[in-house]
Amino acid sequence: MIQEIKARIYNVQEVEQRLLKNGAKITDQTYFIDTYFHQPEGKVLKIVEKKKGAFINIFQAAHGKFQVVKDERIDNIEKLKKELVAQYGIKRIMKGSRKFFQFQNYQIIFNLIDDVGNFIIVTGENPSKEFVEKELGIEKPEYITVSFDEM
């Protein structure tokens, strides 16, 4: 199952340069608007709007990581958004930019969230803290074990 591990970073350019030097490839770059809906603790439901369209994401917290339960393109965003607002209510709307890299067997995402901070997300089969620290060279990372809408 696809999982993700997240950490706050302060040296975005340095980590990005290290990734590129070690063979990572940039696969996408986009601005985003994430609309989070109220959910029980440990569960995340959001609509992501970006240049490639709109997507519904559902995540479940598990052992300090998040499991990707659903990541699907949606066609009628306004209809779905109305339904989710009626059912759950909006918890938070966040904006920012993301840059995607492919490195080894992982997708690395730089998630720069307006008024919240800069983060790196490692997505794939069982990403580890060891990978973040040794392969990405991030010293003493501040791991994030809650959804961004909780910050």
UniProtKB/TrEMBL annotation:
Q: Gene3D superfamilies from the entry?
A: Hypothetical Protein Pfu-838710-001
Xref: InterPro entries: CYTH-like_dom_sf (IPR033469)
| SUPFAM superfamilies membership | CYTH-like phosphatases (SSF55154)
The name on file for this protein is: CYTH domain-containing protein
Q: Which organism's genome codes for this protein?
A: Candidatus Nomurabacteria bacterium RIFCSPLOWO2_01_FULL_42_17
What lineage is on file? Bacteria, Candidatus Nomuraibacteriota
